[in-house]
């Protein structure tokens, strides 16, 4: 009758496995003992101050700022409705491609470039025309609405 042979390598592997298990148990017991020594969750919490620096002290509740959800403007989102600007504005058409149906108007008041689509035109326009328009909010920023050429 043949007896299963246990080679030297198998014995060494079993010893290593048992040794690793013992070390793991010791580390577990050590962590439990350290947790009882007074380390708590409060010792591990870090706070961020108003300048973005990490500190161990909680922030001052008197400096807390409250923001309204409606004050937050997300530029990449389309809310579906266009918000009207502050009345009529004037500007000059810097670029307009009739075949593609879009262009840009440089606002004479603020100097900003405002996107205009052919659907927003009430009269025909071309480059360097003086126009009146209203500013609304589009997908990616300000858009011109109710664009009329000034005669």
Labels describing this entry:
OB fold (Dihydrolipoamide Acetyltransferase, E2P), 22% helix, 7 strands, alpha+beta, 151 residues, 2 domains, two-stranded antiparallel sheet
Structural write-up:
The protein has helices at residues 8-36, 41-44; strands spanning 47-48, 54-55, 89-97, 102-107, 113-117, 130-137, 142-149. The protein has 151 residues and is an alpha+beta fold. It folds into 2 domains: 9-57; 89-149, Beta Barrel (OB fold (Dihydrolipoamide Acetyltransferase, E2P)), CATH 2.40.50.140. A 5-stranded antiparallel sheet has the order 5-4-3-6-7, with no helix packed on it. Strand 6 and strand 7 form a beta hairpin.
Give the helices and strands, then pairings.
Blueprint lengths: L7 H29 L4 H4 L2 E2 L5 E2 L33 E9 L4 E6 L5 E5 L12 E8 L4 E8 L2
Antiparallel strand pairs: 1-2, 3-4, 3-6, 4-5, 6-7
Largest sheet report: 5 strands, antiparallel
Helix count equals 2
Q: What is the fold named in CATH at topology level of the largest domain?
A: OB fold (Dihydrolipoamide Acetyltransferase, E2P)
Q: First CA to last CA: what distance?
A: 114 Å
* Rg computed from alpha carbons, rounded to a whole number of angstroms: 35 Å
Number of domains: 2
Report the CATH C-level class of the largest domain.
Answer: Mainly Beta
Q: So what's the oligomer here?
A: single chain
Strand content: 25-35%
Mean pLDDT over the full residue set: 84
Query: In the CATH classification, which architecture of the largest domain applies?
Result: Beta Barrel
| Adjacency order of strands in the biggest sheet | 5-4-3-6-7
- Which stretches are low in confidence, meaning pLDDT under 50 for 5 or more residues running? 79-84
SS-derived structural category: alpha+beta
Net shape = elongated
Number of strands: 7
- Series of secondary-structure elements, N-terminal to C-terminal: HHEEEEEEE
Task: Give the helix proportion (percent range).
Answer: 10-25%
CATH superfamily of the largest domain: Nucleic acid-binding proteins
